[in-house]
Design brief:
The complex is a heterodimer of chains A (about 325) and B (about 290).
Chain A: H1 13-63, H2 66-69, E1 73-74, E2 79-80, H3 83-114, H4 117-132, H5 135-162, H6 166-171, H7 181-205, H8 209-217, H9 222-233, H10 235-251, H11 254-259, H12 277-284, H13 293-329
Chain B: H1 4-54, H2 60-64, H3 77-108, H4 113-127, H5 130-142, H6 150-173, H7 178-186, H8 191-202, H9 204-219, H10 223-226, H11 246-254, H12 259-291
Helix pairs in contact in B: 1-12, 3-4, 3-6, 3-9, 3-11, 4-6, 5-6, 6-9, 7-8, 9-12, 11-12
The chains are: A mainly alpha (about 325), B mainly alpha (about 290).
């Protein structure tokens, strides 16, 4: 390491005075520079919120509170509502969590308790690589690999098995296109499993080893240590990681756009084509000229998505921070 | 007789308990293995699909010719170059901002309210839906001037790249030992020199990691570019005009019904994915070596 200050040693008193002057102004200037950049981050977020709300105001003002509960999306009659895409967003994300949480938990359990350390680091890296794959690739993979499997095998099987059971028949109704809420939920699950796994693994690993060891010392099995020692200890961190995954799922665009089916109807069938807020924005934006009521409605949907995802993110940060502080107390 | 049966019963019960405990442990172990296998299988399936469909289309034309109507034997050269230009400019704009913000959080924001807010907001931007960033840039940079541009795409990517750099820079600077700072200050270096030339220099590997991860993240982004740089089927290096990018070209081609466009979509997908994964692998293997 070189020592830059050495170069500053002044040769004459004159230079010493000027060096001191530079120092006196340079330090506050640097501090000002980094502070301004920090504040600029706040300004960017503020501007995003302002643009969404301001742009969507036209839609909120035209339709009133009905915008939130109407499932209409009719460019001909200029009637728009947010209910259908919000429904699709919530249901597809919920399905994704239903699939991703057990998968992520099992993988994190395997990585922290079952695998030999060297193998765990290789598999752990593979899991992280899955998280790095661009979302459009998940969309293509979903459309060309997963959709045919669901159309040819999963949906006929479920229809055959549950088609005559009163409540379940509603869930499996519909033509076997292979696209729809369940497929979107599945693709989203694949996308968010790595990030939930990463958080769970970190939380498990952050537990003091002595707690785990005392469990084993009492003769507990690996599962018992996980169930009665690790899980209670890391509950908040776990939920925080899951909520973080949910936030990701709700904002995902490209992967969902390929497989959701693009239809603005609220239906209870898992195979019904639907839309999420993000996929609707991606699909409808090209036909929405600037200044139109449709663009305003899309921006209003953007504002709603922003609000939903920020509330979930805030909640997950809060949980993770709480988990950390209880960890420090132990 | 009466003295043996309770102890036998007790032995039975404890054996049953042991069996039950072992069974639940086996079940959980089996579940862990299955979950891991499913996740690895998914990655394998994605890579296999890309290789099988993308490899046959890799040719010199793909890299030397611009996009063309179906049947005219076009390539993806303009999309590849457009992607590199927009990602490069995006990171060039986003990384310095992220670096300075990271310095602010680590060095000047130990316990103040402003820093806590900036950290929180930066984390929010890190997970903000990328399509909203695209919509935002459309409203402030595209709609007012009336046409799409590669430059606005770069700005959208910069907003996505910045929080990643903020995160890694702050985390890395916090790892610098106090004694190193004290050594710098004792030699009479001003604080800004200590930060830039001692602390940042000491962790430059980690900071570079963050920047490379940001490159990998934004190079494959599609959603924010749909509304900003739009895509362009002609060769163009003009950042003030609509500009092609690989993910947007893939999106456009994958939804088409033409055989040769589909083929190019798969080949493009192969390029983007392996480019991004190779950056990730290099970064992760490199940092692991550095830490050890």
């Amino acid at each position: 390491m070189d020592i830059p200050a050495r170069q500053n040693v002044p040769a004459s008193p004159d230079q010493a005075v000027s060096a001191r002057k530079v120092r006196r102004t340079a330090d506050p200037a640097f501090r000002l520079l980094v502070t301004i950049t920090g504040v600029a981050v706040l300004v960017v977020l503020g501007a995003i919120i302002a643009v969404m709300v301001n742009g969507g105001w036209h839609a909120f003002a035209t339709f009133g509170p009905a915008f939130l509960i109407s499932d209409a999306w009719n460019p001909v009659t200029q009637h728009f509502g947010a209910a259908a895409p919000v429904f699709g967003t919530v249901v597809s994300s919920a399905l994704a969590l239903l699939l991703a949480v057990p998968l992520a938990f099992g993988t994190a359990f395997w990585l922290t308790a079952l695998a030999p350390p060297k193998v765990a680091s290789v598999i752990g890296m593979a899991v992280q690589l899955l998280a790095a794959v661009p979302s459009i690739i998940f969309g293509m993979w979903g459309f060309f690999v997963v959709v045919p499997i669901i159309a040819h095998y999963v949906q006929p099987f479920l229809h055959h098995t549950f088609g005559h059971v009163p409540v379940l028949s509603v869930l499996v109704a519909g033509a076997p296109f292979g696209t729809g809420l369940l497929t979107a939920g599945f693709i989203l699950a694949v996308m968010i499993t790595p990030s939930i796994t990463a958080v769970m693994r970190d939380v498990f690993a952050s537990m003091p080893a002595v707690l785990r060891e005392s469990g084993y010392g009492l003769g507990a099995t690996r599962w018992e240590v996980m169930r009665h020692v690790v899980l209670p200890w890391s509950r908040e961190g776990l939920v925080g990681g899951i909520v973080l995954g949910m936030g990701r799922a709700m904002g995902e665009t490209m992967a969902v756009t390929f497989v959701i089916g693009d239809s603005n109807h609220i239906g209870w069938s898992l195979f019904a084509p639907a839309n999420t807020i993000a996929s609707l924005i991606a699909l409808e934006f090209p036909e929405s000229p600037a200044g139109s009521l449709k663009l305003a409605s899309l921006l209003a949907l953007g504002a709603i998505l922003m609000a939903i995802s920020f509330v979930t993110l805030w909640f997950s940060r809060w949980l993770l921070a709480r988990g950390e502080s209880t960890g420090r107390r132990v | 007789m009466s003295s043996t049966s309770p102890s036998l019963m007790r032995a039975d019960r404890s054996r049953a308990l042991l069996v039950r405990r072992q069974l639940s442990d086996r079940l959980a172990t089996g579940f862990g293995w299955v979950a891991m296998a499913v996740v690895v299988w998914m990655l394998g399936s994605i890579l296999w699909t890309l290789l099988r469909n993308g490899l046959p289309g890799l040719s010199v034309h793909l890299f030397t010719r611009s996009m063309a109507p179906p049947g005219q034997d076009g390539g993806l050269a303009n999309a590849i170059v457009g992607d590199i230009l927009q990602t490069g400019l995006g990171v060039l704009l986003g990384a310095p901002a992220g670096l300075l913000t990271g310095i602010f959080l680590a060095e000047y924001g130990a316990n103040n309210k402003l820093a806590r807010m900036v950290r929180f907001v930066s984390d929010m931007l890190l997970s903000a839906p990328s399509i909203l960033i695209g919509l935002f840039i459309y409203m402030i940079m595209v709609a007012p001037v009336g046409h799409f541009s590669g430059f606005s795409g770069s700005v959208a990517l910069a907003i996505l790249a910045m929080p990643i750099v903020v995160r890694t820079t702050e985390d890395m600077l916090r790892l610098v030992p106090v004694s190193m700072r004290e050594a710098g200050i004792a030699l009479g270096a001003p604080k800004w020199r200590v930060i830039l030339f001692i602390c940042l220099r000491a962790v430059r590997g980690g900071v570079m990691t963050g920047i490379l991860l940001a490159v990998a993240r934004v190079a494959g982004e599609t959603a924010p570019l749909l509304f900003t740089s739009l895509g362009n089927s002609e060769w163009s290096l003009d950042m003030s005009r609509p500009m092609a990018s690989l993910p947007v070209a893939i999106y456009q081609y994958a939804g088409s019904a033409y055989q040769d466009w589909m083929q190019q979509a798969w080949s493009g997908a192969l390029l983007v994915t392996f480019g991004v994964l190779i950056i990730n692998i290099v970064v992760r293997v490199g940092t692991r070596g550095g830490r050890a």
